[in-house]
Amino acid sequence: MKIIDTHAHLQSKEFDNIIDEVIQRFGIVEKVFLATSYISDIEKAYKLTHNYENLYFFAGIHPHHAGEFKIGDLDIIESYLKDEKCIGIGEIGLDYFYNYAPKETQKILFSSLLDFAIFHNKWVSIHIRDAVSDSIDILSSKLDLKAIIHCFSGDFDLLKLALDRNYLLGIGGIVTFKNSLIRKNIKHVPLKNMVLETDSPYLAPVPKRGHTNEPSFLQYTLFELSNLLKLPPEEIAQITYENSLRVLNDK
User: Fold this and answer.
1) What is the DSSP letter of 216?
2) Annotated binding site for a divalent metal cation
3) Tens digits of per-residue pLDDT, 187-204?
4) Torsion of CA 241, 243, 246, 247, to 10 degrees
5) Residue 174: count of CB within 10 angstroms of its CB
6) Which residues are a divalent metal cation 2-binding (predicted)?
7) 44 φ/ψ sector (left φ>0, alpha ψ -120 to 50, else beta)
8) Would you state the pLDDT for residue 246?
9) Which residues are annotated as a binding site?
10) Which fold has domain 3-249?
11) Domain-wise residue ranges, the chain
């Protein structure tokens, strides 16, 4: 049995001195996709993926950093898209929970980067927090987009759009949280659209809450999904693994 972690931040400072140990603990996790948030973060992920065969990266600007974006950054992202280890653009999106950047700035950058991804025929990893309505408005006009909705919340309107467009939906540790919406609605997410993720070092699953999350903890999400969906973990692992390979094989 093998699985893929489709969203992690192993280039984060939390892993600076322990990355070898973390990778040695991968267990059933065969590959990890790194999401990035700003230009120097992309560079760090790029270097990391070229040091470890089983790591890949998205090149993106997180909505928290939308206000820092400069027009020349687009050229830098474009240069990374040519790299063999780069699988797309991300994470990008909208975050109205913290509002570190003005909403209009976030929306302009998000729309522009989606257009950029479509032009280059690249996958995107999308972050949406407290911004479902505006995200749907923007995504609705973006045809031919290849997308993973990272940390899918369980929102039905977003689910409808995702299924209509055949997006992938990232399921992580939140599904193990007792009162989470995604836990309540997970039975409505088709396996053919599901991929697994940790969002390491954030959102560690039960029973590791309070710990620094890492790819090896993805097993807890897998086994909890097995309990919730009443399916063998091997079946969920196989289908989500094949779904994740869509990203690698069409980059």
Assistant:
1) G
2) 7, 9, 91, 127, 150, 199
3) 999 999 999 999 999 999
4) -80
5) 18
6) 127, 150
7) alpha
8) 96
9) 7, 9, 91, 127, 150, 199
10) TIM Barrel (3.20.20)
11) 3-249
